[in-house]
């Protein structure tokens, strides 16, 4: 709406400024231009002066509306480019094939570097996000591995002590006289304890 009012107002000011200048020239050079008859002559029952004013206002409204419509089209196109720039899309897509004014082209040329900078910033932000994710993933894996090692050491120490105690008990039992078939089972038990000790050492 502001563009319509501005365009129509500018044209009215221009036209009436020219009419005022001609009127004063007519006052000075009466033999060149004659405005006096405008106040007395009528067209369709309307004084020529008022009729010409109505025609001028009507033409200014038509021409001003056309100009304002084109200006609004340019502004809408620029808004679309700005939105595309902030969304990371390529700017400069003239979907409506508008005939761009020089001012609009200058604004667009200023927008292109901004779009490129935003694209670079978006890439950097994505890279930082990926790096942060990778670092967090490595930290989690390290924490899990450290905890596994801690549990393995605790289990190893506890079970190793029990296996060592069992081995000592079996050695002591071997020194006593056992009735069959217990004396035949002791070597088997000793081998099982030794195998278990080897497996526990392999955990670390």
TrEMBL record:
It is found in: Cell membrane. It is a multi-pass membrane protein. It comes from the Bacteria. Keywords: Cell membrane, Kinase, Membrane, Transferase, Transmembrane, Transmembrane helix, Two-component regulatory system. GO terms for molecular function: phosphorelay sensor kinase activity; protein dimerization activity. The chain crosses the membrane at residues 7-25, 45-69. Its EC number is 2.7.13.3. It comes from Staphylococcus pseudintermedius. Its main location: membrane. This is histidine kinase. It is an enzyme of class 2 (transferase). InterPro entries: Sensor_HK_TwoCompSys, Sig_transdc_His_kin_sub3_dim/P. It catalyses: ATP + protein L-histidine = ADP + protein N-phospho-L-histidine. Residues 147-204 form the Signal transduction histidine kinase subgroup 3 dimerisation and phosphoacceptor domain. GO terms for cellular component: plasma membrane.
